[in-house]
Amino acid sequence: MNIYEVIKRPLVTEKVVTDQALTNTVAFEVDTRANKLQIKKAVEDAWKVNVTDVRTMVVRGKTKRFGSMLGKRKNWKKAYVTLKEGDKIDLFTA
Question: Which residues contact 75 (CB under 8 A, 6 or more apart)?
Fold first, then answer.
């Protein structure tokens, strides 16, 4: 997998922005098949930063109702990436 297949999109929520300011941690939606080493390498290659820790979790899809039918959203994987002190990823600039 290349870096564009591993990292799908950055997650920008209130919790993630607070974590980024306090603990230098950034969150991404990643491919469900990607492991921690692949995620670390992809972030380091894409943004030229040093990664100290990667934590992953699988977010289970919710069961939703579509009229009289029951459906389920797909499961997806989230990764919290902690950066080395002094490194920074700015997601809002071009």
Answer: 32, 58, 59, 60, 61
Helix (H) or strand (E) holding 5: helix 3-6
Residue 3 CB burial class (10 angstroms; 0-12, 13-18, ≥19)? middle
Task: Give the per-residue pLDDT at 90.
Answer: 85
Q: Does residue 13 have a pLDDT over 60? A: yes
Q: Which pTM was predicted?
A: 0.90
Cα–Cα dist 27/81, whole Å = 6
Model confidence band, residue 76 (pLDDT cutoffs 50, 70, 90): very high
Pairing of strands 76-83, 25-30: antiparallel
DSSP assignment of 12-59 equals --HHHHHHHHHH-EEEEEE-TT--HHHHHHHHHHHH---EEEEEEEEE
Tokens of 36: 């921690």
